[in-house]
Amino acid sequence: MRALAASVEEVFREAAARWTLVAYFTLSTIFILLFATAVNLDIVNGALAGAKLFGQSVEIGRSSVDIDRLVLGFESGFSGFLYLVGTFLALFATAHLVPRLQEKGTIDLYLSRPVGRVPLLLSRYTAGLLLAAANLLYLIGSLWLIIVWKTHVVHGRFFLAGLSILFTIATLLAFAFLVGVVTSSTGVSLMATYAIFFFSAILAAHSRISAALSKDWAAKLVEALYWIFPKTAQLGRATVAHVAGDQAFRGIGDMNLLAVYGSTAIFGIATLMLACWLFSRKDF
Amino acid sequence: MSALPIEARGLRKAYRSGLKGRTVLALDGLDLDVRPGEMFGLLGPNGAGKTTTVKILLGLTRATSGEARLFGIPVGNPESRRRVGYLPEGHRFPGYLTARETLAIFGRMSGVDGPALRSRIEPLLDRVGLASWRDVRVKKFSKGMTQRLGLAAALVHDPQVLLLDEPTDGVDPVGRREIRDLLREEADRGRAILVNSHLLSEIERTCDRVAVLRAGRIAAQGTIAELTAQTTRYRMAVSPIDDALLASLRETGSEVTRVNGHLELSARDLVQLNAAVDRVRARGALLEELSPLRASLEDVFVDLIAPASVAGAGPKEPS
Lengths: 284, 319
Ligand SMILES: Nc1ncnc2c1ncn2[C@@H]1O[C@H](COP(=O)(O)OP(=O)(O)OP(=O)(O)O)[C@@H](O)[C@H]1O
Ligand SMILES: [Mg+2]
Hints:
The structure holds two protein chains of two kinds.
Chain A: H1 2-17, H2 20-39, H3 42-53, E1 57-60, E2 63-66, H4 67-94, H5 97-101, H6 107-111, H7 117-151, H8 158-183, H9 186-203, H10 206-212, H11 216-228, H12 232-244, H13 257-281
Antiparallel strand pairs in A: 1-2
Helix pairs in contact in A: 1-7, 2-7, 4-7, 4-8, 4-12, 7-8, 7-13, 8-9, 8-12, 8-13, 10-11, 12-13
Chain B: E1 6-17, E2 22-34, E3 39-43, H1 50-57, E4 65-70, E5 73-74, E6 84-87, H2 99-109, H3 114-127, H4 143-155, E7 161-165, H5 173-188, E8 192-196, H6 200-206, E9 209-214, E10 217-223, H7 224-228, E11 229-239, H8 243-251, E12 255-259, E13 262-266, H9 270-282, E14 286-294, H10 297-305
Parallel strand pairs in B: 3-8, 3-9, 6-7, 7-8
Antiparallel strand pairs in B: 1-2, 1-4, 4-5, 9-10, 11-13, 11-14, 12-13
The structure holds adenosine-5'-triphosphate and magnesium ion.
Adenosine-5'-triphosphate binds at residues 15, 17, 24, 26, 44, 46-52, 89 of chain B.
C-alpha cells in the first residue's frame, strides 16, 4: 500500500509541476469567477429579488418562469457542456501517464521496486481518475454553492452529472492507457481516444447507418461496433437527463440506461484488463 | 537460508526486433553466482549482453529460457526486488522532484516507512556528495550529479544486493574514487554487488571476481588474480647478466629476452622453469627475484575479445 500511495503521490506532484494541473484548475477557477460575476449582475439580482418577493417565479420577458425550473435548466445545460469539455480536459491532463512511465531510463526505476506491474499501472490509473474527480468536484461544487447562495434552490442531482462524467472519463482513460501501453506515445493515445469518442457518437445513429449500407456484413459490423464501443452520445444525454430529472429524458434511441452504462463499463473494464495484461508481459 | 543473493542458470535471451521476426541473441546460456560480500564485475564489449543480464535479474525483461533467482526467489516475483538496489544505465529521474523528494518517493516504493526514510535520506545524500543539492530539482543536475543521485536511490532502502549498470558513467575522477570506496564499504558490510562497466582499471581495483561476456556467453571468469596471472611468463632478476647466460638459458628451450636490466622468460612448466634456475646457479650468477608476470585486466580483456572482432570491431550486427 505504501508503495502504491507513493506512486499516486508522484502523479500528483508531476501534474502540479507540469502545469497541467495548474492550467486545469486555473481554467476552472476563471469559469467559476465568471459565473459568480454573472449572477451578481443587477439584472439578475433584480429578477431574483422579484422572485423572492412574489413567490417562486422570475419574470423573463413577458412570461414568468418557475425559479426552480430555471435553475434546473441551467444546471442540466451546464452538465452537457461539462460532459464534453470536462472529459476532454481530463484526458488531456492524464493521457501522458503511461507513455511517461514507459520512457527508456524511467521505467527501470519503477519496475526495479518490489511493486507488481499491474498494481503499478492501476495506481497510475487511479491517480488519473482522482485528478479528474477533484477537478469535477471543484467545478460542480463551486457552481452549486453559488447557486444555493443566490437562489436558495438546492439540487443534489447536479452532482449526478459529476458521477456520470467521471464514469465516461474512466472508460476513455482505460482506452488511452491501452494505446499508451502499446505505442508509448501521448499524442497517439489522445488522438485515438478522441477518435473513439466521436466515432462512438456517430454510431448512435447505427440503425440509420446500417439501413443505408448495401452489404450485409457491413451492416452487421456497424451494429457490432455500436454494441462494443462506449456509448458516448447516449452518456452525454443521460448526464443532462440525470440533472434535469425525467422530463428531459425521453429514452435514448432504443437503449435503456442499464444497457448504456453496462456496455460502456464492459468496454472500459476490458480495455483496462488488456492494458494490464500487455503491460505485464512487456520487455523493457 | 543458504540461497545466494544472485543466481542465474542457463539464461538465454532472444530479442525479436522488427516485423520480419529477425532475432538478436543477446544471451546464450549464461550462468552466474554472486555471493554475499562479493563485488562481481561483468565485463564485455558493447552489445555483449551485460545490460540484458541485469534486466533479466530485475524482471524488466523476460529470459527466453533459463532461470534466475535473487535470494532464492524467482525474478518474476516482485518480492525478489524488495532487497535489491538498482542503478539503471542512462536513468532519468522525474525532473520536477528534488533530490530529497526523489529518495522519499522511491524509498517508499521499496516499502520503507516515513520515520526510517527521514533518518536515512540526509546521511545518504551526504555520502554520495549531494548534501548541498538536496532541495534542488533534479532537472538542474549535471550528468555526474544525476549518477550520484541514482546511486543514492539504489541504496535508499538499504538493500542486500546491488545491481549497478555503469555506476561511474559521467562522474569525475574524484567522484569515481568516492563511489568506488562507497561500494567497497557496502561489500564489506556483506552486500552482494554486481557491476557492469567498461572501466577496466576501476574493475581491477575494486572487484573480487569478474566475468567477461562475449556475444552472450561467458568467455572467462574468475578472480582478478586468476585472470591476470600469465603462468607461462616470468620475470627473473639475476646478476650478472651476460650473453653466455642468455645462450645457456635458451638451451633449456625457454624464450628469453632482456628487459631493462632483468630477464623475461617463458617456461612451459615448472620443470622447465627450474631447469633455467639450475643454469643460472651453475654459471655462478645470483638469483635476486623470480616472479610470474601479470597482465593487466585490459590485456586479458583485449585478448579475449579480439578474436571475435577480427571481422570488424564494434558491436555485432543484427542477424
Ligand atoms: N529491447 C531490445 N530489442 C532488441 N534487441 C535488443 C534490445 N535490447 C538489447 N538488444 C540487443 O541485445 C544485445 C545485448 O545488448 P545489451 O544492452 O545487453 O548490451 P551491453 O552489454 O549492455 O552493451 P553496452 O556495453 O553497449 O551497454 C545487443 O545486440 C542489442 O542490440
Ligand atoms: Mg549496457
